[in-house]
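Quick one, T. Sequence first:
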Amino acid sequence: MAATFSPTVHIGTETQLTDGGSKLTLNWEEMYALALELADGIEQHAIETGESFDVMAVLPRGGYFPALILSRRFGFRAHQIVHLGLTSYRDGETQRSDEIIGQTPNGEEIAGRNVLLVDEVCDSGHTLMQATHRLARLGAHTVRSAVLHYKPERSETGYVPDIYAASYNGWVVYPGEPDEAHAQFSCVNRANHAPALVDIETRTV
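Structure tokens:
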């Protein structure tokens, strides 16, 4: 059985919600500290199991920040990092929908390799379970998942990440998430705002 690791204290600011739940808010410094906790857990896992990894597979978008820290901490170079465009949530939604598949690695990048799968949180477990199965179908020798937060009481699948930095069942707000409110006013992303861009292009002709 793969090792897990969690610190004894929560990193972040916890507030109680009116519905009886709780919210944990992290700033960039706290998220960095938690990523280092995760790195320690991965190191411990490698020592205890004798496993090492050939490839890091990153789940966007939440997996980008921990993957940046982990890749530098462990010396993963660009050619050892792959992008697994799989998500269970559509933009602006908090309820899970059918998995959306974007860019994924090919068999040559995964077959026969030990893969470290990185994301920021394991909530329902659907995304990480789907990602693990997809990597296995591509021929991965082993797949081990590593996340900042694991929410055992939120699981709908029974999926447990192999390594996690902290266990927390409430709502977690990561730095950068509040900036998503700006998206509705931005004309940068054509996929989300094609009508606005067409209007801009018409006015500038």
